[in-house]
User: Fold this.
Amino acid sequence: MMPASNIIPLFVALPLAGAFLLPLIGKKVKWAPDLTGGVFTLALMALSLVSVWVVNQNGTLVYSVGAWKPPIGIAMVLDGLTSFMLVTVNLVAFIIAVFSINYMEKYTSKWKFYSLFLLMLAGMNGVIITGDMFNLFVFLEIASVASYALVAFGTEKHELEAAFKYAIMSTVASLFVLLGIVFLYSYTSTLNMADMAQVLAAKGGGDITVMVTVLFVMGFGLKAALVPFHAWLPDAHPSAPAPISAMLSGVLIKSLGIYALCRILYNVIGMSAEISSILLVLGTLSMVIGVFLAIGQWDFKRLLAYHSISQIGYVVLGIGLATPLGILGGLFHLFNHSVFKSLLFLNSGAVEYSTGTRDLKEMGGLAEKMPVTGATSLIASMSIAGVPPFNGFWSKLIIIIAAVQAGRYGYALWAVIASVLTLASFMKVMKYAFFDRLKKKWDQVKEVPVFMKLAMSALALICVLGGLLLVGAVKTDFLSQAADALLEGTKYAAIVFKGIG
Assistant:
């Protein structure tokens, strides 16, 4: 019987296979890119759901690449946090691939888009499953390089400028990460995360852990666009095609930034009161500054980009509390944000697809002509603003309760203030874009094609049902196993070595 751990490398092998297959057949067969993109992302979504069950049945699994056992060989690890992130990334990726079937018709070379899309997905999945520090950096770069090209995909002047700025800032982030890995390797003489955690626990970190923690917070903070490392995001995300904006804000900044930072700080270096305080401050700054910058925006996608900075602040605040409830709330909000922010970027893409503008002042009354886009935008807006019973309300509530329980009343107050300001910002969006009087120039506007409507409706359904289902069973394997993986801290090392088959 095939070992259960054999599922792990498929998360990288499948999208890589699709990315390299598309250039061979995409030029000759017109329908091949859509079919290939849809089939491969559907397979990855199904595998990610299976991975939750596999972890529930078997506990932490380790795949040894080339049959070389860790710490000598390269390891791929599947635990509760890994399966949680895999579901988040691949669910959103599949729905965005469906949306792209119609949306990307206005661009040339669909096969290039899907090839880069699958390459980016392979990089994200690789970051999530790897148990090796250097391979984390390699997969980080694969996803980043593909995302640079996708931001510039339209090849307009502003897109190329945004992609260049994004590439420069992201390269600086990668340098910080690489330096952190180099210093850790020189101190521990290993690149395996579990082995590294054991060596650090045995020798004591001292000054070296302080230095690498600062490097990782700057490096992964840049990838996640935390304040004050956020300057690249408001240009890069609006400039990309809508499906890529949804991927960047929905899952890329979380897998390359938040996930990697959490995995290293909790499971390799070990969480401390000092690190917790840094994360709380960065999370609160991002939460508040992001929403203040968003309120004054009239470009639909740029407004959403600033809200990505703000909502990532909630995730970091929850995880930075370092309490069981705080971590649970942070991870819950990470999943919820992936869903409603992806939906909002798809909504903005649908509006731009039909009207040709992103300026909220130019719109008005579009819900009358685009009922599906209007309804799903309302659901997503209520979700991000934390209005019950939508999913964003429950995760924000858990984070605020966790902050109060931990005695962090000031942070809880800022979380409430940021949520109220978010609601005000999206009331403006809904009024000017969808619920004002219909302008005469939009009389001939039509709703978007069927696959775009299907994708938006699917994400809206998760916004409505996701909160109720997950909060009703908040101790489900999906969420609790992910939180437990972080709460184990540096015991992660012993769990991984026990899971080696």
User: Anything to note?
Assistant: The chain has a mean pLDDT of 86. The beta strands are 61-64, 75-78.
